[in-house]
Amino acid sequence: MTLHLINKTPSESSALRDSLSAVSNGDALLLIENGVYAAMPAYAELFTRLPGSVQCYLLEDDAIARGLKDLNQDFRAIGYDGFVELSCRYGKVVSWF
Amino acid sequence: MDNLTVNGVIIPVDNEGYLRNLDDWAPAVAEQLAQQEGIQLSDAHWEILAVLRQFYQQFEMSPAMRPLIKAITAELGADKGKSIYLMSLFPGSPAKLASKIAGLPKPTNCL
Amino acid sequence: MSDTKKSFLIINRKAPYGSSAARDALDVALTISVFEQPLSLLFMDDAVLQLLPAHNAAAIGQKNLSANLSMLEMYDIDQLYVCQRALEQRGIRPDDIELNIILLDQSGIAALIKKQDQVLSF
After folding, report:
1. B4-36 has CATH 3.30.1420 classification
2. Active-site residue numbers of B?
3. Are chains B and C in touch, 3+ Cβ pairs below 8 Å?
4. What does CATH list as the number for C8-121?
5. CA distance C50 to chain A (A)
6. CA of C46 vs chain B CAs: smallest distance (Å)
7. Chain C residues near any Cβ of chain B (below 8 Å)
8. Rounded Cα–Cα distance for residues B48 and B51 (Å)
9. Each residue of C28-64: pLDDT tens digit?
């Protein structure tokens, strides 16, 4: 199983789009840096076709830094310790940037 | 430039004499910074330094001359919001010199 | 200082953090204002994300761009144009933005660019 890291906004590169088409059952998505903007409610439509088994996370400090609140509830906010824990739990990490 | 020593504590400064760590600032530090520039701080100086520090707290940047004058006019009145008045207190380049003594970074984009 | 004035437009297209584009644009804007040239800023695409209030960039060890943008009026930079479509695409309401902004549609953006002497893009 794979942890997919996305660090670009939905419009600054194809990173998010490419990652979504490469996700398998049981994988996880983690939005970091500019990637956290994808958790704005306006982008919720992008994630509706993900398999239900895919867990979605975002790095909380990156959202706080950008003044983001009322984000997509499907994303669980985690800290750096959670980031480390996920990286260990999933055998592979793929960075989309 | 040599670091400051204030009350036995070494305060690091950059090569132009601006504090490296903004948290190191204290009135005693300001007095020493001013002394190095040949300035004896009076009440008139302190109220300008207070406006500067408030500006930095709000906007997270040191002001160039024009916004500094605007801020001083708003806080202390139009009589003091004049470059000639600031020049009399902080000769040469008031925005740069007053920022240094207020413990703030050097203003960028300042002619 | 020269008597002749040129009008400048700075186009912002990038998010506030993650690259130096937003900060570079701000630095250039402040510099142009010191030379007292007529200056407008246009925020489009991801740059509208710069306008969200209450950043807390200390969380990522950076300075708050939102605090710096609220300083623009102290530099008499008050022509802040914003692409309406970019706001809509991101679900941002104009009321969410605490700066005084002027909304533009596509033809308004074209007209704004057309009337400038110089345009810089970040």
Report:
1. yes
2. 110
3. yes
4. 3.40.1260.10
5. 8
6. 22
7. 27, 30-31, 33-34, 63-64, 67-68, 70-71, 74-76
8. 5
9. 999 999 888 999 999 999 999 999 998 999 999 999 9
